[in-house]
From TrEMBL:
The gene is coaBC. The lineage of its organism: Bacteria, Bacillati, Actinomycetota, Actinomycetes, Kitasatosporales. This is Coenzyme A biosynthesis bifunctional protein CoaBC. Residues 1-192 are annotated as: Phosphopantothenoylcysteine decarboxylase. One of its GO terms (molecular function) is ligase activity. It catalyses: (R)-4'-phosphopantothenate + L-cysteine + CTP = N-[(R)-4-phosphopantothenoyl]-L-cysteine + CMP + diphosphate + H(+); N-[(R)-4-phosphopantothenoyl]-L-cysteine + H(+) = (R)-4'-phosphopantetheine + CO2.
């Protein structure tokens, strides 16, 4: 199979130095990378660095190697164009179809998926002009990743930080996999999706809790693939130790009650809600304010449990017309029978049921499952990366959303 051709456009922002790591990941994973920096980008990282890391010349103007017509050919040959950092100026030029350097010419001639990873100060990101430019690009099928929240240039902190290069790389992999046919694939563009991930913890005392083994990896895979398909993603993350997926708004929670509040709040304007988190069914009736001590010769006091709210059933009961609600069921026996019963009991549109156990599903890099629909259709998803299962879930969700439109 031919190596995918990736054009890495680099904008003129201080975050350009971080893009060297993205370039390294792309090159080492078997992609042919052509770096096209703006002239401003070279003020931060020089041409020699881009050329050395990519193994190909890095030019900014249309007059270099003019006999090869680079302002046309680079975009025509690309399987993916990713722009990082995408500055406010570069987003504006792309949205308005300007072509005053090699990168903007490339963007106009590309007929492949295009990913923008913005980075700028918060005020610039929130300005109505930038928001309108982003909306324009998304309407045309480009994937514009939401910037991260964190330390910016100088002492400023806020939304506008370039997402982690490793997470941008994962978005690029997802876009390449989904847009392999040649045309951009952003079937969730304009959609807001909510994903829950991880496992809730119910405190017994200040140092102990009732919890489960969910790592959050499947929920994070769902968030990443939704970003790659153009969605605005809210990720409600319960006790995970994973880097924030690029482009997702992450709401950290601890207990089932906190998860319920965050999910119901985010679901108000969501087109789809996918409950991949392992939510505790029970919690201690009372929490000790001090550490429960072991008493010599005495058995421990019984722990009295009470039910937690059923978040999935509540979502299904409260969903508005056209909203899709997806549940997950981790089962250890009678997997399909238990899954079908849970789907009927919860009232959701789809249920993803998988068998769990030692070295199965929890904490692993791969997964297998059966997607059961309320209408009775069942889709087995064979063992494979968790992103594979995530894409099959979004395939089913987009089909249901399309039928509701």
């Amino acid at each position: 199979m031919d190596q995918p051709e990736v054009v890495l456009g680099v904008g003129g922002g201080i975050a350009a130095y971080k893009v060297c790591e993205l370039l390294r990941r792309l090159a080492e994973s078997g992609h042919r990378v052509r770096v096209v920096p703006t002239s401003a980008a070279l003020e931060f990282v020089g041409e020699a660095t881009w050329s050395a890391l990519s193994g190909a010349p890095a030019h900014t103007g249309v007059w270099n190697d003019v006999h090869e017509v680079p302002h046309v050919r680079i975009g025509q040959r690309a399987d993916l164009v990713v722009v990082a950092p995408a500055t406010a100026d570069l987003l504006a030029r792309a949205a308005h179809g300007l072509a005053d350097d090699l990168l903007t010419n490339t963007l106009l001639t590309a007929r492949c998926p295009v990913v923008f990873a913005p980075a700028m100060h918060t005020e610039m990101w929130e300005h109505p002009a930038t928001r309108e430019n982003v909306a324009t690009l998304r309407r045309r099928g480009a994937v514009v990743i939401e910037p991260a929240v964190g330390r910016l240039t100088g002492a400023d902190t806020g939304k506008g930080r370039l997402p982690d290069p490793g997470e941008i790389f994962e978005v690029c992999r997802g876009v390449l996999a989904h847009g392999a046919g040649g045309s951009p694939v952003a079937d969730l563009a304009g959609r807001h999706v909510v994903v829950s991930a991880g496992g809730t913890r119910e405190p017994l005392d200040p140092v102990r809790f009732l919890g489960n083994r969910s790592s959050g990896k499947q929920g994070y895979a769902l968030a990443r693939t939704a970003v790659a398909r153009g969605a605005r993603v809210t990720l409600v993350a319960a006790n995970t130790c994973l880097p924030d997926p690029a482009g997702a708004e992450v709401l950290p929670v601890g207990t089932a009650a906190e998860l319920r509040e965050a999910v119901l709040g985010a679901a108000g304007d969501a087109d789809a809600v996918v409950m991949a988190a392992a939510v505790a069914d029970f919690r201690p009736a009372a929490r000790s304010e001090s550490k429960i001590k072991k008493r010599d010769g005495a058995d421990p006091e019984p722990i009295v449990l009470v039910r937690n709210p059923d978040v999935l059933a509540e979502l299904a009961a409260r969903r508005r017309a056209g909203q899709v609600v997806v549940g997950f069921a981790a089962e250890t026996d009678d997997v399909l029978a238990n899954g079908r019963a849970k789907l009927a009991r919860k009232g959701c549109d789809l249920l993803v049921v998988n068998e769990v156990g030692e070295n199965r599903a929890f904490g692993t890099e791969d997964n297998e499952a059966v997607i059961i629909e309320a209408g009775g259709e069942e889709t087995p998803v064979p063992p494979g990366p968790k992103e594979q299962l995530a894409d099959r879930v979004w395939d089913a969700v987009t089909r249901l959303l399309g039928a509701a439109d």
